[in-house]
Amino acid sequence: MAYFDNAATTYPKPESVYGFMDEFYRKSGANAGRGNYRIAQSAKQLIDETRTLIKEILNCPAKQVVFTPTVTIALNIILQGIIKMGVKNVYISPFEHNAVTRVLHHFEKQGELKVYELFVDRNLTYDLERIRYQFEESKPDMVVVSHASNVIGLIAPIEEIFDLAKKHGAYTVADMSQTAGLINCNTGLSTFDFAVFAGHKTLYGPTGISGFVMNPGIALPPVIFGGTGVDSANQDMPDGLPERYEMGTLNIAGIAGLNAALRWNKDVGQNSIAEKETSNRNKLLAILKDYSWIKVVGNEANRDYVGIVSCVIDGISSESVEPILSGQGIAVRTGLQCAPLAHKFLKTYPAGTIRFSVGYFTTEADFEELKNALDYIDGEL
Length: 381
Prior knowledge:
This protein has 381 residues and is of the alpha/beta class. The chain has two domains: 2-11 and 269-380, Aspartate Aminotransferase, domain 1; 15-267, Aspartate Aminotransferase, domain 2 (3-Layer(aba) Sandwich). Helices cover 39% and strands 14% of the residues. The chain is built from eleven helices and 13 strands. α1 (15-28) packs antiparallel against α7 (252-268), α3 (71-84) runs parallel beside α4 (98-109) and α5 packs parallel to α6. The longest helix is centred in the first third of the chain and has 20 residues, at 38-57.
């Protein structure tokens, strides 16, 4: 099968990820923080090392790393915690995932906050002057921005947006699910309060391990409770970090895989990985543009993108295309991609799009299979 669903999860992973997960879990698969015996200490050392690697790749040596099973859980911890602190005006980009929008919608329905959309023009430019004016009209308490859209791959000028937000004292949250380890971003800046990463996407680790980096000076209230392995007599969650937000048993096998993936990233080089993905995206676009019945959505000149391309096909619904492509050995994602707000902005709601997404390991053979599949559809139209 030719795999073009890397925005859902990158596949395959580096060989070192598979090998190290198996090796470490067999030798040291104990519950870290629950004992002082050798393999528990080995697990703890791995976790500490992986936190350091995350700080290096996200350029944030002074931030705290918190591990979670998924980005959705990470965002819930952050957003619900900030909402408990009394924020009222929340700004988001037009490209947020349901992991953000459903949380905010829940609290907006209850009258606890109001959600505003950052201004992006029809040429897909984040208009910073208009955004500055928006903030002056309605002061932001929290600003949440997807660093890159999971629908079209558009990269947001997140550092500039957060700089504007901080002039009003807003909390800032970066969703880096599609960019961590791929697009260089200085999350160590004081303008970044929280930045979320997905271990299994552009970091090329396994599923089941994600997390966030945070400003340790923010006293974020916990919203999930449970055992942490420390201060067990206290029925309040501990004040220390990261234990305050790492309830339950950490996924040591997943962290081992993430550790190997982060070391692979250092060896190959983030710039090399990004260059390969950009090259593969350009190859994908060139193929799609050979077919007049394919319309690429949201691809503007002089904009920056990760390796995601969305399109629609004349006369065929996006959902009905997936089984056809799957039957030809092509893996894609169709529909709304858990981002209905983005599709409303792009005028592709409610049908959605066919999303192709490439990665570092997309091969020439994959592109050949895609061309053959599209030739087959062309012959059937």
